[in-house]
Every structure is written in C-alpha cells, then in structure tokens.
Specification:
Two copies of one chain form a homodimer. By secondary structure, chain A is an alpha+beta fold. Chain A is about 40% helix and about 20% strand. Chain A has eight helices and eleven strands. At the A-B interface, strand 5 and helix 4 of A face strand 5 and helix 4 of B. The structure holds a DNA duplex.
Chain lengths: ~250, ~250
Amino acid sequence: MRSATTAAGALIRRLDGMAALGNTERAALETLPIEVADLGDHHTIVHEGDQPTRSIILVSGLACSFKILPDGSRQIVAFHHPGDTPDVQSLHLKVMDNSLATISPCRVGYVRHDVLRELCLRYPTVAAALWKATLVDGSIYREWLSNLGQRKAPARMAHLFCETFLRKKMIGDASGESCDFPLTQGELSDALGISVVHVNRTLMQLRSAGLADLSGGRLVILDWQRLRVFAQYDTTYLHLEGSISF
Amino acid sequence: MRSATTAAGALIRRLDGMAALGNTERAALETLPIEVADLGDHHTIVHEGDQPTRSIILVSGLACSFKILPDGSRQIVAFHHPGDTPDVQSLHLKVMDNSLATISPCRVGYVRHDVLRELCLRYPTVAAALWKATLVDGSIYREWLSNLGQRKAPARMAHLFCETFLRKKMIGDASGESCDFPLTQGELSDALGISVVHVNRTLMQLRSAGLADLSGGRLVILDWQRLRVFAQYDTTYLHLEGSISF
DNA sequence: CGACTCTTTGAATTTTGTCAAACTGAGTGG
DNA sequence: CCACTCAGTTTGACAAAATTCAAAGAGTCG
C-alpha cells in the first residue's frame, strides 16, 4: 500500500478505513472542494486560541499537535501521518486548545467547515467515519497517557517507536524494518516529557541494546519482537480491526 | 444548578450543553429506554477488551476510566462526574481499550447502542452533541498529557484539583470552596502517575502551602487564585463557551 | 478485639533534570 | 575555499525529583 497522492484520495482512504463507504459517499468526497498547499518544515498551521473555519487533511509529511504551557514548556500531544485529519475537532469545538505544526515539509488539504457539515448531514456514514476517526485519536491519547504516566524513559520511547513504525507501515510509508521519522531530540523530548539530555541517553541505550535506532531522521527497528516486549506494546488501542496485525 | 436526578434528565442536560437541543430532540431523549442501576463503590462496569452493546450515562457518583499495563500498573485516564457519558466511544469502537469502574457508589443509566444509533440518524443535532461530548473528552486528554508530561508532582496535582473543583461546580456538586472527591491516595497515584508515597508528601505540601486540602474524601480549595496560578490553570480546554467562567 | 486498608514517616536508591562545555555537520558569506 | 555561525548532538559532573523499601500509626468493620 502506498500513500495516496491527492488530498481527496487520502481522505477517502482514511474514512473508508473507519466505516465502509458506499459509491455515493466516495463520489461526493471525490468532488469535495479541497484547497491544497505545500508547507515548509516547522511551520505552524493553526495556533492555540484560533477559531478555524476549515479543517486539515494531511497528504504527506510529518506534523504534530502541541500545547504551550504558561511557563513556555511544550507538550507534543500527537504526531500526524499522511491521511490524518489533525483538527477535525474544530468542526464542533470553536476554539483550538492546541496548535498544529509541520515537522517536515508537508502537503495539506483544507476543507471548509460548512462544506464538511453539509456532507455530514447528507451522508451519515461520512459523519460516522469522521466521528470514529476522532474516537481513535481519543484512544491514542489514552494510550499516551498510560505511556507518560506509567513507563520510565526507555520503555516510553520504545512505545512511541513501536506506534510510529506501525502507523507508518499501515500507510505504506515504511520499507522493511525502517521508516522516516525526522525528529530532533528536542522534539522527542517535548513528546515524551523528558529532558533533551535524557532523550539523548535513552536513545543511545535503545541503540546499544539492539532494539531501535533513531538517527538522521530515520527510525530503524533493530529487533521488533524484543522492542515490542520491552515497550509492553499492545496494538488494541489503534483499533485496527480489519487491518493486518503484527 | 443541581445535578439531574433522572438518567434522561442528566443526558438531556449534558447534550443540551453541547449543542442547543430542540423540543423534538428533547422529547425523544425523554422517552429513551434507559435501564438504571445502582452500583457499589469500586465496581468495574466495563472491562478492557469487552465489546459492549450499550453505553453508560453516569447519573450520580464518581467513576473513572483506566488502563492496566502488562506489568500490572494502572493509569487512570479520566474521572467521570454526573452527566458524563464515559464510554460513548464504544458506539463506534468495537473493543474497549480501557476499563470503566465506579469509585464511589454510583447510579448509572444504560442505553443500547442500536437505540442510540437510530437516535443519531433521526436527529443530527443529537449526533452532533454526542460527537462534541467525545471531542471535549479528547481535549481533556490533551490537557492531561501536558499535565503528566510537563508538570512536576505538586503543580500536576494542583491542576487536577482545579479541574475537579471546576467541573463539580459546573454541575452544582460543589458547595462554596469545597466538593466531594472520594479518592484514596492510591487512586490519586494512578491518575497522576506518581508513587503513593509521593502523593502523600505532595498532598501535605499543597495543604501546608495553603493551596488545597484533600482528605477524608473531600477536596477543599484553600486559596483558589493562588492554586490556579500555581497549577498554571487555564480553562480553555474544557470548552465551556456559554458557561460561567472563573 | 483483630484484620484490614489507608495514611504517614524515615532512609536509601534510582531516575531524571540542570548546567556547562565540547563536538558535529550543514549552511553562509567573504 | 575557508572561517564563521548556528542548530543539533554528545559528554561529564552535580542536583533535584521521585521511587522503593520498611515500618509505624490511624480508622473502619466484622
């Protein structure tokens, strides 16, 4: 499986994975007015506090949602891969409670809220699929909460690596035992809630333990089975259902 | 404002707070077949891995969602107050990725999924309100992620206290500067991701700093302004919009 | 009264953070 | 082509935060 190349294609594939779409729904999505844009790396797409009138579909690249605390520290609450709809919640929540930014250069599609709303009214299946997509996001948040709350730095990082590799694999963005994951250690620090220095040491630990290696923006899984066990990784929370399991 | 006493009343109030309901929707909800049950404390309602055919509306009491990790540790990912619908996600996600349990004795209402699904099809406003409720849950997860990832134990606990007090106040379950919050220190530990011993020390710290006091199952806010500042508490993520702000 | 869970306290240990500095590699402009 | 900058990575030494272990109180309930 390869990533879809058009914005509509990416959206259709994602929603079809959530709830089987009929031909009418598919056709409606095909003709959806989507404005496409190519954005550079580290570009903030939506700011905390914004009141967007459109939502985003990520076509290619790596993006993230994050919150800035009053003291200036940052928590990355989600990574977004091609096919993701990182801010559909803004369809019902007026004010953004988090920011959305690219990490690598990204291609994104913009869909206006009123268009989406009308689509949801006309096609309940599409509404259900979009809703379900946000519910899977919620499930991932819960898993991340367990990860931050219960695991020590090495297992926590290993867990993120497992998730990333699996999600990349699902969309055909992983080749063999590796995939792109162009993060700086600082960004990893913001996602895992550990200091940059400790990220560096933990990375080396995973590397020398022969589990995984993240360097030069590429994640290499050195031993999937052992990494999985080490991270106590269980895929239930991704709600893959029909998909391939690992 | 007081907590609703009937299950339908609780549901209507909650959904009306999400999207203004019309009289037809309200009437439909009034006659919804809801099975009510009174449960004891520390009773698990739904287990991780279950495939429920109905969802729950919490009428009274305190409940929580949690995940058990393979090593036996537990992470509480959410607390539920009267009016909450703690497992609506099971409407679209087949397998529960977390467990749901009472903390104090609770009255809950059960609504069958097929009934809910039909309701959503007939009344898009109800569907939107339910969807929005799950989106607010998602927003709270994001805030908790920042809390676990970025704050040290004292501010982290203070943040939870702020949220709890505010949510209790919103549903009329707080009197003056205090509210019931019948948690053991062990449960607090599972929610905040810190050890029981450290919970105890942190509780005493907040108490002697004159910020807040949790003991005997009751949360007393000693100095709301200072507590708020200490916790860096910002209510945006609750998406109160029309409601009173603090 | 025991049996029990929950809370509190002390001391030793581990984990993680902070500070400071050196090192690396990819631009950039002279 | 060479300094120069700059962001990112790596290292060491130290400090702080949090965990673990162990044991003693406190409260509740049969």
